[in-house]
Amino acid sequence: xxxxxxxxxxxxxxxxxxxxxxxxxxxxxxxxxxxxxxxxxxxxxxxxxxxxxxxxxxxxxxxxxxxxxxxxxxxxxxxxxxxxxxxxxxxxxxxxxxxxxxxxxxxxxxxxxxxxxxxxxxxxxxxxxxxxxxxxxxxxxxxxxxxxxxxxxxxxxxxxxxxxxxx
Length: 167
Known about the structure:
The chain has helices at residues 23-37, 39-42, 50-62, 118-132, 147-152, and strands at residues 2-4, 12-14, 16-17, 68-75, 78-89, 100-109, 137-140. It is of the alpha+beta class and 167 residues long.
C-alpha cells in the first residue's frame, strides 16, 4: 500500500499492514508514545514493565482481527512509524446511524523520522480503512503536536463531554 503524502519534497511514504515480526517494534513505538505524552496517567509510577509483555500478546492477537488495522512505515533499522485503528460496534442512534465507531489509537513516529509525512500517510490509510467499514464517526485523542494534522484531515472538536473511571 503506497500513499502520496502531498509532502512538499514530493517524497512518497510507503505504508503497509503490520505483521507478527513487527510486534517488538510496535511495542517500542507505543512506549515512545507514552514517554512523549508524559504525566502519571500515561506513565504511572506503579505501571512496572509487564504492560509491554501484555501489549505484545494483545498485538499478536489483533494483527489479523477484522476490527483492527495496524499500519506501519519501515525505517532503516526497524519501524519509523505506526498507527492503529479499531472499529467498535455500538448501538445505532440518530447521531450514530449504524453504530460503528472508529478509533485511532496512538499514531507515533520515531523522532529520527519525523517531518517526512509518515503520520499523514498512516492516517490516510486508516481513514480509507474506516470508510471501507462504513464507520459513522472516527474518534481520536490528539497530542498538541499532532492536532494540526488531524484538523487538516477534517477532525473537529468532539461534541460529547468526556469522563473516565478506573476501578
